Amino acid sequence: MGNAENAVALFDKLAAVYQDKFMDTGLYHDSFNRFCDAIAKPDARILELACGPGNITRYLLNRRPDFKILGTDLAPNMLQLARINNPEAKFELMDCRDINNLNTKYEGIMCGFCLPYLSKAEAVQLIKNASQILTRNGALYLSTMEGDHSTSGYEASSSGEKMYINYHEAAYLAEALTGNGFKIIAQQRIQYPGKDGKTITDLVIIAVLGL
To answer: I need a labelling partner for 121 at 20 to 30 A (CA). Which of 18, 62, 114, 153 fits?
Structure first.
């Protein structure tokens, strides 16, 4: 089983635990608002990657009830929770690494808690794929735990389960964005306490295609 597949299996197993712990997305509301404000078109089509239990979906729809959201995830139990939490949205089982196979164009792509489970090469490819399915002026939201990519490895969660965590660097993400026609319109770092007294830094980047 690969690193990503291992993460999916754990998220499927711990879906209810994850929902109880992370349904509150308050730390990220300012950045979610910036993403919403970047999308002027009414009834915009939004693709959400690795939607989990629909915690971000819920906030986006409260902020922009007009959004037409398709939430995707690889963990069936997460999708089941997401449908309960957001009956007005659509949800499908899909690998975020396969979005290049979609035929629909979207005004926005939300990728809130996905990159830590993708390698550097996969993250860069995701940005390229996103550029091909976004409309002109479409917005892309990325967040990840920031750090030297070489320090990526298996880490134990609060439940004791281990999964592979990829740390990503702002420099190569920004290079991939600009190289695929994006303009970065917002960048934010959010810090919170981790295990063993460590401070975790989440990097948020919002970019618009073709400005």
So the answer is: 18
